[in-house]
Amino acid sequence: MKITVDFEECLKDSPRFRATIEDVEGDVCELESKLDKLVKLCIGMIDAGKAYNAANKQFVNGIRELALQSTKDEVIESSLSKFAESLQEMINYHTILFDQAQRSIKTQLQTFVKDDLRKFKEAKKQFDKVSEEKDAALIKNAQAPRNKQHEVEEATNILTATRKCFRHIVLDYVLQINVLQSKRRSEILKSMLSFMYAHLTFFHQGYDLFSELQPLMKQLGGQLDQLVVDAAKEKRDMEQKHSTIQQKDFSNDDTKLEYNVDAENGIAMEGYLFKRASNAFKTWNRRWFSIQNNQLVYQKKFKDNPTVVVEDLRLCTVKHCEDLERRFCFEVVSPTKSCMMQADSEKLRQAWIKAVQNSIATAFRDKGDDAEKLDRKSSTSTGSLDSGGEPKERSLKGESALQKVIAIPGNACCCDCGQPDPRWASINLGITLCIQCSGIHRSLGVHFSKVRSLTLDSWEPELLKLMCELGNGVINQIYEARREELGARKPQPGDPRHEVEAYIKAKYVDRRFVRRPSDEELRSKVVSLSKQEKRLSSSSEQLPPRPPPPTPKLRPGSNASGQSVKSADSGIQHSADGSREMLATTPSNSSLADADIAEPPPMPMPATLPPPSPCKETVFSEPKEYSSGLQLYWASCARSLPDMAEALAHGAQVNWVNTEDDKRTPLIMAVRGGSLVTCEFLLQNAANVNQQDAQGRGPLHHATMLGRTGQVCLFLKRGANQNAADIEEKTPLAIAVEAANADIVTLLRLAKMNEEMREAEGPYSQTGDETYQDIFQDFTHMASNDPDKLNRYQQYDPQRP
Fold this sequence. Notes:
Layout: H1 7-12, H2 15-47, H3 52-69, H4 74-88, H5 96-143, H6 149-202, H7 207-246, E1 267-276, E2 284-292, E3 295-299, E4 307-310, E5 317-321, E6 329-333, E7 338-342, H8 346-366, H9 371-377, E8 396-397, H10 399-406, E9 424-426, E10 431-433, H11 435-444, E11 451-453, E12 458-459, H12 461-469, H13 472-479, H14 483-486, H15 497-509, H16 519-541, E13 564-566, E14 572-574, E15 580-582, E16 597-598, H17 628-637, H18 641-649, H19 666-673, H20 676-684, H21 699-705, H22 709-717, H23 732-738, H24 742-761, H25 770-785
Antiparallel strand pairs: 1-2, 1-7, 2-3, 3-4, 5-6, 6-7, 8-12, 9-10, 9-11, 13-14, 13-16, 14-15
Helix pairs in contact: 2-3, 2-5, 3-4, 4-7, 5-6, 6-7, 11-15, 12-20, 13-18, 16-17, 17-18, 17-19, 19-20, 21-22, 21-23, 22-24, 22-25, 23-24
Function: GTPase-activating protein for the ADP ribosylation factor family.
Keywords: ANK repeat, Cell membrane, Coiled coil, Endosome, GTPase activation, Membrane, Metal-binding, Repeat, Zinc, Zinc-finger
Region (Disordered): 371-396, 520-620
């Protein structure tokens, strides 16, 4: 039994089935065309007896065309070709032939065309109509909002009814196709064979020719009987199969999708999903998705090349999406992008999510030995913090950063599962991770964890120091303080991904294992940190006074306001109106510390300056209420990163404002504490670099006033607004000029120049001036590795004469 279209395949309504239907419809359409042509030619032959010879030649050509159309059926093709050759030699027909031709050709084939092909066309119309209704019902069901229950029920009922109708129609349509394909052979051969026997009977002139053809004709006659019997049997078998399938229970089509990793065709799972486009319109399109070869792909038509959504399932995660208006949505997140999809029902969504999770687990199990190769192949970091397009030459990368971070106690194994030799890190938490845990951390979002590679990404000094001052041991003491008390099991290497993911979410998102301090413990902690800050302040005040800076040289043409500065490295001069001009000479070996500053002639400075008063003195007083925000506030000033991490774990807001202390923030207190790493830690945890205190001063103001060149460099790289003015209408640049701090003036003016150059280059400029990049890189390394070189200037004193 030969089935042209499989009954099981039609119920899936897959692209393969649609492609087969298109081929069959095209074949039947062409068959109808050829048969109609043959019948019309036969009628023309009967009506135009006088033009018999010409009509006969055309008729023979029609037979040849029909033979060519039937190249897939060797019996029809070979037989018709042989008949055409014999008829080509028979030019003189008798009139009696036309009567037989009318009975054998016209009547039989017209009946076949009118009856069988008409049934096919009617079935096709019903199929096309119900297909459109099904698509419309699917779209309406997908678009039904979850908060309008009546619309959801209505859409579901319509979809159920439409699916049921579709199954009946498509089964009938496939039956009609298979019956037609089975019957066409016997009908065509039977008609033609009858016509050829008419030639043998009525034309004695062609007896010799047909005597040679007679054995073949007899052979076909015998085959025709068998073909008729076979066609009848095939029809009964197909009707029986049609009836059997129709009686099956298809009330729950959602259970048809199952994950099969051992599928012969390599496709572990496939089916229709709605996919949200990544364009601005966010349109939803229905596509045929499949999981194959450790990839998630989709295609619009069966003949289209699959589009890869996820290149490697080991680097992705999948999660539910309940914040959309559409129902049954889920998201597959990879290191480079995310794909939002929608199933037709909740069961299908769960099936797809489970299938993706199983694929991830299978990929890790089958390709666990390739994890190191994968680590070196694809970098999924959050990107270099350097504002340039390429990592700088002296930024640590590869084994250098890895060795420094791994050397910290506890960092030699993954912080969450204990996998040895981790190659990834969370920079805002200060921990090391294995590749599987890094993928889970990445799925949490950058507001929880920022993942970078220890071997592939460039590491700036301040970020590397941040990693070295925290580490897995410190963070686990905070985030796993109550784990044993609660009886929670810590994942081990090789545990299923979903178990590790659940633990990590409980640890960092829900913070289930963090020990909440009592009010007395919190008060004791805050008081201790405030005392520690005082000790640091007093120790710094007892340092010997630094010598005053050399008197800046006044460049010819500079005005009294001192608004012209030259960077020795860059060779670029800024004038008062913000314009830039290249200087004739650029000393190649001059140090940034000796930059030529065109400032107003300073007044003679006394040997001992009055006590500095850059802002209101910080004095600890009993607060109205102790909170984790207050702990973060004083820990930032006391340079205690573990206490800062603990405060954040307890729920402290990184931009918490101390209303009792001039509305200062933890970042401003970190500036006052003098630690570059403390500022970096707060910025990595989303601290606002432009948040101002009650005096209108942001972190950049305070860093400038205190002469903290390294912090100024850091804030400028993180997007600090150097044009912001405090309540005295002073910008950081004005403060730096007044304090004659050449380094900070250089940084501020270079940053402004770079901003102007980027604006001039257009909105798509990314890197800015290379000199700016190099100088900032020099200051970054100097601030982290040799900070004493930057402490050449006393802090700003607004009362200084």
